[in-house]
Write a structure and sequence with these properties.
5-stranded mixed sheet, 3 domains, BirA Bifunctional Protein, domain 2, alpha+beta, 40% helix
Amino acid sequence: MNDAMQQLPTTPPKGTADWFPEEFKIRKYIFDTWRKVCLSYGFEEYLGPLVESIDIWKAKSGEDVGGSELTQITNRDGNLDGLAIRPEMTPTVTRMVSRIWKETDKPVKWFSIANFYRNEKPQKWRNREFWQLNADIFGEESLNADIETLTLSLELMRAFNAPKGSYVLKLNHRELINGFFEIVLEINDNTKRVDLMRLLDKYEKLKKEVFNEQLEKLGIGDYEVIHDFMSAKTLTELKEKFVSLAGSSSFQDFEIIVWTLEKLGYEWEIEFSWNLIRGFDYYDGVIFEMFDTNKNNSRALFGGGRYNGLADIFGVKEGIPAVGFAPGDETMKLFLEGHGMLEDIANTHEEKYFLPLLEEEWYQEIQQIAAILRLEWKNVNLWLSPKKLGKALKYADKNNYSHVVIFGEQEKQEWIYVVKNLKEGSEEKIKI
């Protein structure tokens, strides 16, 4: 290397991560589990572009994701191109569905597993670059679509064999909150509603006195009424406290959703959370977040909800009813680690075949053997430099190979190869 040449770092850019083979094995396990469950629900897989028009993010993604967290693209002249790297998938998939809406069969049930980038401060549970599952149902207004989405999210957790009590699905309803503002608090100003909605999102993080001060700044003096609403633990309690609210359609819809989930056997996995708001501006119905109950990782694993009004930015006049959710890879990994659920994954022995080259002049023959095994879709690693058999066996054991394929002097004379099963201790002679 030229002394004047700058030595480049081996570490990845800030907020990103290298996935070496062992780490990738964990991510693949997470992705494969997601894919398996979504396919079992009849969802079809899709993928959108890495970049989109900046306008779709600014229109509906909220002030953070659609603003400061966006990474814009410059063209060859160094000027902004009106494009940004995707920070989430919902606007993209809504655009795609809007494009084919008139001619496609309904409902549309799609999922994707893709990477995203947000220009935010890296945290323990979140890099700037991250991967997400996005699962959405378009074209179905009935509560059955909400219930299908919620059961899918719960079955994702069950598919990892998560222990009972290790997670909880917290539920709320945006229209129910708006109904409380309108019917009980008599707030009709939309700007004030939005500001109050964002304040409620911080309810558990603020001291009561600070929360009340913020209410006062918004011109809201019904402190205790709001505290009564936020402290309700069940729908029955909420109904008793606010009879007028219980008569609203949003309350009744929410009640049906909860009752159905309980009847389907998910009672212990769900709870209400009136301060659950979610940051995206496009949600307009049921909203939810899955939480880890581990005290060392007590945070949201993922969330989602109903967003019927998003397609209007793409000119679909009749609107497209939609509901979906999006788990992230990092939070899911932390959940699995926190509950000791990755040990078996790390120790899993895949069906991997190791084919050592024992003599240089036998390279052509072992290439032929490798081709035979690969025609059967075997995972075959062929050593490219000659080494002794003992060293080859130690290598295979150290790297968790399930089989070693031996082609030595005796095998060459008989024109065979030997497949040694390291897990069972058996071996099989096969004619070439």
